[in-house]
Amino acid sequence: MITIEDVANFAGVSQSTVSRVLNKKEYVKEATREKVLKAVEELGYKPSRLARGLRINSSQILGLIISDIQNPFFTSLVRAVEDVAYQNNYAIILCNTDEDPEKEELLVELMLSERVAGVIITPTREYECPILKLHEMKVPVVCVDRRVFDCETDTVISDNVESSFKLVKHLIEHGHEKIGALFGSSKITSFRERLEGYRKAFISSGLQVRNDFVKQSTPKEGEGYSLANELLDLPQPPTAIFAGNNLMALGAIHAIKDRGLSIPSDISLVSFDDQEWTQLMTPKITVATQPKYEMGKKAAELLMRRIEDYQCSVKHITLKSKLLFRESVKSIVSENL
Amino acid sequence: MITIEDVANFAGVSQSTVSRVLNKKEYVKEATREKVLKAVEELGYKPSRLARGLRINSSQILGLIISDIQNPFFTSLVRAVEDVAYQNNYAIILCNTDEDPEKEELLVELMLSERVAGVIITPTREYECPILKLHEMKVPVVCVDRRVFDCETDTVISDNVESSFKLVKHLIEHGHEKIGALFGSSKITSFRERLEGYRKAFISSGLQVRNDFVKQSTPKEGEGYSLANELLDLPQPPTAIFAGNNLMALGAIHAIKDRGLSIPSDISLVSFDDQEWTQLMTPKITVATQPKYEMGKKAAELLMRRIEDYQCSVKHITLKSKLLFRESVKSIVSENL
DNA sequence: ATGAAAGCGCTAACAG
DNA sequence: CTGTTAGCGCTTTCAT
Asked: What span, in angstroms and rounded, lies between the C-alpha atoms of B114 and B93?
């Protein structure tokens, strides 16, 4: 492996000079600059990012800690972060928490161990979050998709309360009053906010929220399936289901199909995120779609900004979701007349 | 940040001793071992992976270079690699080539720069691949999903020729002779092999392969859409389409829908990978599904093995796909009678 | 079984 | 504008 010393010798200059031209921080005479660049080229020199990192106590790596890369919502987000990271000559280390706070903590420690330049994270809970450790070590952090209340952190989320409100309002306007809801834990702010939107929609319509219709668990497909079954097993089952994320929606759909029921004639359904299947299946599913890529991009930009200036003011960005009204909601107003 | 020196001082031993107990390579007296461990615990010491990496000239990081994380096929693969990597205390750096050989080369250089312990890659082409650079530097490499002919490398792929053969044979058995095919470039071995399977199916049935029915381009949805349109525009369009991957299938489906045609009554379709939408849409799509997670897992295991012993024998693993015959193929044999 | 010391490849004062 | 020098935090001989 060829080192900075080799380059220096080859070019007949000192290591510092090589370092200077490569980091283009200080002035170097044009002639020597060219000599060095030629040596670099000739020798095919690639700086050791490890050595550099050790010296400046920070690697050219960003940590990206998400719930699960297999959730297509996060996939887009990851891609966005990667795109801006690579533009800025950062690599990214990707990790999944699987919504497990202990795993999250281990991963944060990994990030510390790797001396990453910054981390983007979807925290598993709003309090007692390991982000504090990052703050202690002055590692730039930005939260994405979810918020955290232990500390002040740059954040990018979508308008959960509002999109959720609109989705449920849409159901209510179509005559639904018994609306089952499937959410992840309320310790995850996105779900707490969606639940809040759900409640607000009821209240604003002068309706009572029935807590037995609100089911919460791990926001995965399997849980969506069993919680939907619990709803369907109720003596007076809901006429519509509001799924708190795309995975739970998938579970709910399978639960509905497995009972031989159909959407929307037997039961209506709304959910989040415009996955391929939501528009390919019959009926097309009504969803609120978050600007996933944009969220990741903004988060990465906020992180780059804070890496440049650790002291800059904290920003909270809320991006708007788009409502896509499709075919999965049946109007049952006539039945009430 | 607390260092190994702090731990040594706290425990009243030397740095070497601390290093020894932490790397558990050499014998240390039980009593001192405990003292050190207690100090580590007390102080909350996290070794700098950067410093360690610099010293041993290799980080505890694996490089994972894929086409595009947004392709669900790769998503599962990535998850598998991550799972075994973390089990072995490695982190992973994730990158997308977008099928661009230049980008691939840059990414390989990044890996070299980061002194990753090994890399798993889906090469963008079979020859002139930057894997050679990795070999030069004796960095362990394993190819996944695709092969490479420039050098001997551990490889994990699926049985592309065979699964492709079966898929096309299935179409032929249902009376289809005009079968359009959508593939990525033949420089990508998986597509070359799938094309080979396609050809073999024709030959084994005593049929002629019509080259104007074989379309190749970037294996993305957009290209799938336009190539499918080219096929549909033919004076004698095919009665079935064989899509070379899930993205191109999606494009083809949209092309078909946009023309007001329907599957399978107007045109049959088969493809790869059991994505959610393939079984949620009507009709359910007949596919060959590759053991994605298993492929990633095997690849990661091969890599761990080669990291342990760089000289071990090269392995080529081919995993079996499963055929899922569903509703997207119409029998047209009767029409021929 | 343990300590002392050197050095991995780089950057950043500090001189000049 | 450029060179000298001193580490960053760790592992690894080499002694003892």
From this structure: 10
CB contact under 8 A, A277 and B276: yes
Give per-residue pLDDT as tens, A269-288. 999 999 999 999 999 999 99
Mean pLDDT of A88-100: 96
Enumerate the residues of chain B whose CB falls inside 8 A of the CB of residue A137.
1
Which residues in chain B touch residue A57, judged by CB atoms under 8 angstroms apart? 1
* CATH number of the domain residue A182 falls in: 3.40.50.2300
pTM: 0.95
pLDDT value at A336 more than 60: no
Residues B76 and B219 in one domain: no
Q: How far is B165 from chain A (nearest CA, A)?
A: 27
Q: What is the per-residue pLDDT for A119?
A: 97
Query: Of all helices (H) and strands (E), which one includes residue B64?
Result: strand B61-66
Measured CA to CA in angstroms, residue B275 lies from A149, A188, B60, B268, B287 at distances of: 37, 28, 33, 18, 9
Nearest to B106, CA basis, from A103, A221, A87, A237:
A87
Residues A328 and A201 in one domain: yes
Looking at residue B138, its pLDDT comes to: 92
Whether A128 has a pLDDT exceeding 90, the answer reads: no
* Judgement on whether residues B227 and B175 belong to the same structural domain of the protein: yes
SS3 state at B70: coil
Q: How many domains does chain B have?
A: 3
Q: Are residues A90 and A140 in the same domain?
A: yes
The pLDDT-based confidence of B241 (bands split at 50, 70, 90) is very high
On whether both B149 and B269 belong to a single domain, the answer is no
Question: Residue A52: inside a domain, yes or no?
Answer: no
